[in-house]
Structure to design on (550 residues):
């Protein structure tokens, strides 16, 4: 039927207690719950099992502190004349350890540090991942489901504004419970290109340029100094790539592969995925020093 | 959750939901309401029973706003209407809050119809005894829309429709005389349709006009009287022309 916009209804009905928006956790085919619940406004909140801790708040604080490695990653996105450019690194770290994934089953011997940090919500919207990988992946997929349901119910695509608002509302209702999500929702809708930053504290910002993650200061430096609104797609891609490269160079928690996506009027398209090690030598090629040359001459015939 | 003693709306052996049909009867006894969709104007008209002298007529407005760009008129139980309208208004704002966009006419109609349907499939409750006519402009495309819902929870879009008392005659008239109109012509068509079953005069009709730019505007009695006079004049002229065929040269 219609989407469950429970936020306002539940707040009105229950005074000031904030009810969790658990609509994200419900299956698409809810089990018949008995005929009494016709009034959404007076329905009780579904029960939520809390961990059996004597000091729940302390427990949550501890859990969150463990996750604190300030979202070890670099992601960035910016709007320009031709749409939205989205880029990210691919290193996932657990404290001091760096995760590696088997890149493709076809080459089991080859591993590369690849984690998909740019999530395809639907063919015209992308989300970036910073923070807890599971949180980002789950809630982005959940957002994709909601966007699709909206499309089916309303015979029109959801706007980027609407999608980011849905995600922000969900994250806000879990505020203080240890979710760690710092994401950007980028897309092209009827109003043109749009970019929103949404985080697990419940913040939601509309903007033209964002970078999220531990490598973001470095990325901002390159991005802000090289940005022009009227760049071509190739120029913008190169700027995004360089910004990610510089961030991975200096930030230990970022690395791997710099992926660059472009969101245009017909949807997103992956432009490139370059190993940042190789990018380094591309930007700073090795020139043989004079000492080495001498030695080569001496060692000659 | 809420306990119920007995389901009220159950199937009859031959597949009818009698409570819903009785609700439709209640609608048929309600005041006539008509809606006409033009290219840039949509008009709602409702029959107004003469208000008691001491009653403040402003408190019995029959055509109401659901949002800046959506209006509703209904026929049937007015108390049920109040409840439904309040829920619809909350939903309009809730939608604005969660997706930062105004509702489309189709969305809010679907919501109201869904609500009406829920009450035909729950225990211990009876269906809403009203049919609604919902008008508005699509906030994205600007297209005008007119929808009707009924106690069974079905809804559909119309170019022009009527509900309530004598709705069949009004609908027949509209089918015969409908054409794409705009502006004042749409208003006239709606009033002419309503005048088929209502005593002539501004004090027996309530008319509201919605345009894209200005939203809903309730017409004053004097304005309605003026248009009614125009319509009567046109009718008289048409009669005269019929009686005395033009002389041929």
């Amino acid at each position: 039927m219609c989407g469950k916009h429970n936020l306002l209804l539940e707040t009105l009905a229950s005074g000031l207690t904030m009810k969790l928006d658990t609509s994200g956790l419900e299956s698409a085919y809810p089990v018949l719950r008995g005929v009494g619940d016709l009034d959404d406004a007076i329905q009780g909140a579904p029960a939520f099992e809390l961990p059996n801790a004597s000091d729940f708040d302390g427990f949550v604080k501890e859990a969150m502190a463990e996750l604190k490695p300030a979202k070890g990653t670099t992601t960035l996105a910016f709007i320009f004349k031709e749409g939205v450019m989205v880029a990210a690194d691919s290193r996932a770290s657990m404290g001091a350890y760096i995760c590696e994934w088997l890149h493709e089953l076809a080459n089991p011997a080859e591993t590369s540090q690849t984690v998909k940090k740019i999530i395809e919500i639907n063919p015209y919207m992308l989300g970036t991942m910073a923070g807890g990988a599971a949180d980002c992946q789950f809630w982005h997929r959940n957002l994709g489901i909601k966007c699709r349901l909206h499309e089916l119910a309303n015979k029109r695509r959801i706007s980027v504004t609407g999608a980011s608002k849905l995600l922000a509302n969900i994250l806000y209702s879990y505020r203080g419970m240890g979710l760690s999500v710092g994401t950007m929702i980028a897309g092209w809708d009827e109003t043109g290109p749009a970019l929103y930053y949404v985080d697990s504290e419940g913040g939601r910002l509309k903007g033209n340029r964002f970078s999220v993650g531990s490598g973001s200061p470095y990325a901002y430096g390159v991005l802000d100094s090289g940005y022009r609104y009227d760049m071509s797609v190739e120029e913008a891609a190169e700027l995004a790539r360089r910004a990610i490269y510089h961030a991975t160079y200096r930030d230990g928690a970022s690395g791997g592969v710099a992926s660059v996506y472009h969101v245009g009027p017909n949807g997103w398209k992956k432009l490139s995925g370059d190993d940042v090690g190789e990018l380094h030598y591309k930007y700073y090629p090795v020139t043989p020093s004079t000492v080495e040359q001498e030695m080569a001459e001496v060692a000659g015939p | 959750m809420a306990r119920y003693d007995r389901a009220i709306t159950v199937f009859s052996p031959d597949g009818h939901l009698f409570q819903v049909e009785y609700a439709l009867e209640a609608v048929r006894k309600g005041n006539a309401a008509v809606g006409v969709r033009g290219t840039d104007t949509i008009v709602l008209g409702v029959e107004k029973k003469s208000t008691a002298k001491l009653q403040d007529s402003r408190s019995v407005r029959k055509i109401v706003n659901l949002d800046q760009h959506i209006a509703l008129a209904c026929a049937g139980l007015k108390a049920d209407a109040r409840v439904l309208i309040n829920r619809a208004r909350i939903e309009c704002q809730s939608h604005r809050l969660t997706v930062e966009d105004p509702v489309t006419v189709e969305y809010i109609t679907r919501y109201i119809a869904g609500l009406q349907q829920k009450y035909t499939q729950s225990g211990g409750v009876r269906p809403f005894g009203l049919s609604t006519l919902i008008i508005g402009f699509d906030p994205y495309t600007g297209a005008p829309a007119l929808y009707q819902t009924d106690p069974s929870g079905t809804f559909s879009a119309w170019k022009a429709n009527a509900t309530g008392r004598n709705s069949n005659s009004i609908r027949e008239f509209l089918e015969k005389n409908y054409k794409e109109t705009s502006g004042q012509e749409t208003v006239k068509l709606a009033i002419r349709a309503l005048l088929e079953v209502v005593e002539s005069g501004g004090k027996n009709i309530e008319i509201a006009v919605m345009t894209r730019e200005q939203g809903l505007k309730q017409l004053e009695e004097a304005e309605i009287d003026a248009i009614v006079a125009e319509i009567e004049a046109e009718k008289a002229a048409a009669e005269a022309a019929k009686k005395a065929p033009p002389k041929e040269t």
Observations:
- The CA atoms of residues 113 and 153 of chain B lie 4 Å apart.
- Chain B touches chain A through 28 residues (CB under 8 Å).
- Chain B is about 35% helix and 20% strand.
